[in-house]
Amino acid sequence: MPKVVFVLVPGLHLLDLAGPAQAFSDAAALGYEYELHYVAERLAVPSFQGVPLTAGLTWPRLEKDDLVVVPGWHGHSPIGEETARRLAAHHASGGTVASVCAGADALGRAGLLDGRRFTTHHDLQDAMARRYPKAVLVRDVLYVTDGGVVTSAGIASGIDLALHLIALRHGPGAAARVARSMVVYARRNGDQPQAGVMLRHRGHLADSVHRVQDLIDDRFTEPLPLDALAASAGVGVRTLTRRFTAAIGLTPLRYQQLLRLERAEQLLSEGSTMEAAARAVGFEDARMLRRLRRRASADRTSPAS
Questions:
Q1: Which domain holds residue 207?
Q2: Is Transcription regulation found in the keyword set (predicted)?
Q3: Which candidate, 103, 95, 85, 12, places its Cα nearest to that of 55?
């Protein structure tokens, strides 16, 4: 069972902690196994909002599939050398280390920002850029992933970060279900538009269409015949096509293509080749992916867009 370890620092912002913790807790409740741990350099951890917290002093044994998250804090609250060492060691062993808001400072102190892209709360960006000149600050985005180091902006963006990580591990359908349980928006890669494909097309009230979207979200990399989608909704093919298009303005095939394109863009941003990204999202080769990217580029630059 993958572990999610939250490192608590005095003066931490409650939502920096509670947002990601709720996301992974909800994911566990939905059957995506996670084991949450809370550690600190002292037992009593005061939050900036005044709620006292307690945490363990002993870290669990970490494996490469585990995640360490450092929530942000208010004021000057640097981590100790032992915590910095643990962060660096987990990353060196292949694990993922993430931060919310000022938590990026802890990653910087552990040497994990040097040579990497990162982000943080907009009020802290200038100071962090000066403090870690070997890092590349990315402004005005929700989160940035670079080589097993994931940094997010302030406060509520920790939820977006958690949903992103859940989607990477379990797929976009899992992230959508967690987002729905939390009554929040699902987000996509921080370098891309903030509202992802799934969320942009979920503002309707057609239950049968939602059921089909759930199926496509879960299996968008697979061939999904229209008759099978219609059967899952208990309607005919023509009825499904009509309802689906009326609800979201897209056919089921086009919706699936956009999910594939969004995931492929994410893989490309992380260094994947065009061919590998295409195959990972269900295309036989890169030709269709290139065609969809050209179409998306044309749509963005057209006068009507």
A1: 201-305
A2: yes
A3: 12
C-alpha 107: how far from its chain's center? 18
* pLDDT at 154 (0 to 100): 83
Q: Which of 3-12, 26-35, 86-95, 189-198 shows the lowest per-residue confidence on average (mean pLDDT)? A: 189-198
Whether 185 maps to a domain, the answer reads no
User: What is the Cα–Cα distance from 152 to 166, expressed in whole angstroms?
Assistant: 15
Scan for tokens 């890669």, then name that residue: 189
- Pick the catalytic residue: 21, 27, 69, 101? 101
Whether the per-residue pLDDT at 172 is higher than 80: the answer is no
The C-alpha atoms of residue 179 and residue 173 are separated, in whole angstroms, by 10
Whether the model pTM is above 0.85: no
Q: Is-catalytic flag, 19?
A: no
How many structural domains does the chain have?
2
Buried b (16+ CB within 10 A) or exposed e, 171-206: bbbbbbbbbbebebbbbbbbbeeeebbbbebbeeee
